[in-house]
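Please discuss these two lines.
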Amino acid sequence: MRIKPFACLMLFLALSARAALTEGGPVSDGFRDETRNAIDKGLSFLRKQQKPDGSWSSADYPALTALPLRAFLHVPGGEYKAGDPFIKKGFDYIVGCAHPDGGIFKKDELINYNTSICIMALADANEAKYADIIKAGRGHIIGEQQLLGKDNPLDGGIGYGDDDPHSDLSNMEAALEALAYTKNYRDVSEKGKELDYQAAIGFIQRCQNLPGVNREKWASDDPKNKGGFIYYPGYSEAGKMDLGNGKVALRSYGSMSYDGLLSYIYADVKKDDPRVQAVLDWLQKNYTLEENPGLGAQGRFYYYHTLTKALSTTGTGALTLPGGKTADWKSDLIKELVKLQKPDGSWANTNGRWLEKDPVLVTSYCVLVLDMVAK
């Protein structure tokens, strides 16, 4: 089975922090200059990587152009504009990848990721000329939802939109975020094309290690897994965990658990819902910036990105860790990213899973993370 690259971005809806989380404000002044310096170095690197056709990285995947564009447009202070020549050139490239069915892609793969990320970038441009493309992209995403009947564990989910038959939580989160982020582009002509959010929530909870909510046989209440998420029902990137007595659990892991939290938020599941509280509990117990919990170095920077989106959305200034200790995740993350930034301003993972050896992809993640924590 293929496990494919990419990820998704930018928060939209707000969710108040639960009692176990401490609300906090923006990053402290002591880190503000350090943060801005890292952002500027990252953007300088990205600016040099743009290709003559306006694209970044692989021209086969327009999402790899949308991510740098979003990094520039979300810089605090708004100094970069959609009309800046190099940014406009990037948008022209994305527009050239749009298809009549609403999909935005070059190769016939990773269609949902590419479309979702690209319509969010086009929405960031805030220009009327992109409205029809965004609306068509929304329709395409909605049309990718798999409504297979409640007896099918994949019912309500969204997959890659190509030859892979299964839905997965990463694609689900990307789709839900894109629909939330572009909700102002919803046209009355879309009647009958709205996403089935109840079915989507059903799919999300079937990816959660939470017996009583998730009726799948693998769902575990083992303390190491309870509340966390896996990639799709019945499959975990982190693998199986032998609990003894003939019982086996699918191990929860970090990046997918943040995807699960974000998916619930975008599907308007409330803050006091047991499913939301359970994943928040798991995330606090497993907080670390040394790795992607459960996966080590794999997807480490995607993990940083989903962590930042989720904790920014919840307004969280500090996490309450086991034993009563607290973690200032924003300051921790700034220090970690400054330490990992290369002299040329880029970031890249030593582990190549999910394209994370690509400095354009990873630098875009990191600049977006710092854009969020600097606000």
